[in-house]
């Protein structure tokens, strides 16, 4: 099984950015733990602060991978383009958020992605990614 994790803007700052919201662990360290825990899964990771690069990766992985886990960060609430890319592909996408977006600012309550996702997992910290991986085995 091949699963790609795609992270959007500012998620390269995990471990430094707002640790009270996002925790103190870097994503690279967490990703290494995921690779050890899910040795039977080929995990790939991509992060970009650029919307078009995220769309290109969704399109690249979207016809040959078994799953995509997408945390589009703030683009979740603004990007029709990312939502359209999700709709155009055949690979199922799980939308993930580290924080509970509904417990935050009201603009974070709207997602342009959720309607095109297989499911949405939010509010469980970095564990949200692990739950998303497990969902592909259900």
Please specify the SSE layout and strand pairing:
Blueprint: E1 2-7, H1 19-22, H2 27-37, E2 42-47, H3 51-61, E3 67-71, H4 80-88, E4 93-97, E5 119-122, H5 127-135
Parallel strand pairs: 1-2, 1-3, 3-4, 4-5
Helix pairs in contact: 3-4
Pfam families: DHquinase_II
Site (Transition state stabilizer): 17
Binding site for substrate: 71, 77, 84, 98-99, 108
Task: Walk me through what this model shows.
The protein is of the alpha/beta class and 138 residues long. It has a single domain (2-135), classed as Rossmann fold (3-Layer(aba) Sandwich). Helices cover 32% and strands 19% of the residues. The chain has five helices and five strands, in the order βααβαβαββα. It has helices at residues 19-22, 27-37, 51-61, 80-88, 127-135, and strands spanning 2-7, 42-47, 67-71, 93-97, 119-122. It has a five-stranded parallel beta sheet, with helices on both faces. β3 (67-71), α4 (80-88) and β4 form a beta-alpha-beta unit. The longest helix has 11 residues, at 27-37. It is globular, with a radius of gyration of 14 Å. The two termini are 13 Å apart. The mean pLDDT is 95.
